[in-house]
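Structure request: DegT/DnrJ/EryC1/StrS family aminotransferase, Xanthobacter tagetidis.
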Amino acid sequence: MTASATAPAPIAFIDLAAQRARIGARIDAAVARVLQSCRFVNGPEVTQFEEQLAAFAGAKYAVSCSSGTDALALILMAWGVKPGDAVFCPAFTFCATAEVVPYLGATPVFVDVDADTFNMDPESLTQAIAVAIEQGLTPRVVIPVDLFGQPADYDALLPIAEAHGLKVLCDTAQGFGGTWNNRRTGSIGDATATSFFPAKPLGCYGDGGAILTDDADLVAVLKSLREHGQGIDKYQNVRIGMTARLDTIQAAVLLEKLAVFEEEIAAREKVARRYNDLLKDVCQVPAVDARATSVWAQYTIRLAPGRRDALADALKAEGIPTAVYYRLPMHLQPAYKHYPAAGAILPACEMLAEEVISLPMHPDLDEATQDRIVGAVRRALAA
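Returned structure:
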């Protein structure tokens, strides 16, 4: 018998093929309709998707766009963020959250997170605001991130923002579909940005994003900005904009995925609860605030420092992938370490960067496959 014959079958970290097997025929038909119509830009599916997305989130308006990063940038552009302004971002997040701030010449100011939820720490935000003022910056916007699927602590963050006159831009690229006090992400704060990158809980077949808000005036500016700053038509330019449209094929894909999204959120919750039950005695499993529900974009456990790489190697040998989000917090990244932060050390971010590791998570993760993952984790941690 060859070595390859005895090697364990690999497991998908995020199994998009399993989802496609369930709804692929519907998506193929939706895409075929777009191909038949040849309305590849601004086709009717785009408007239809925006309407359904807003209704799902409980927001008045949705403005689709080309990526989650562009969604963040468009909002900051519409609010007139400029040099001298401070925009507060958690340091434990993907770079896109802070990346858009220097686009406009503004200054990202990094905030620590809560070690249990991985989300922005309200006390650290207050400290970061004081640092920004001391450095002569004007506090303008705070960007809470709904990391790994769980909404940030908006009960604590929104009053701080209001007290300091900050706009609240909710980055729910990983958390869209979650709830805070029974409100969907997308209906909290002044505006919300989300991403439809394929690996997201609600993902398309390429890049895509959206903005959700109740502000009609903001929507008018956003729609102009995403079309080169157009006025009465595309040949009148009333502001500096960009090209940031969601293409019609991606809108068609997302309409079909949105139709099953509630079912997939429930399936993700079932997988996460089972992981917690089976692993809580061997590692620190993720905690969800009692006021929140998560969409479990990632299932992330914590280990004592120095144990993570051995676990990853052991699981890889059994055909089980893992990922680390994130090995280096934003305030320590080479491109961002010269920007201010709430303190010289952000202790929770720096601790988490040494401890976190994510296991396979998706709505089609069956119990037999999950048992294989759990068994491998338990064996590795017992060694």
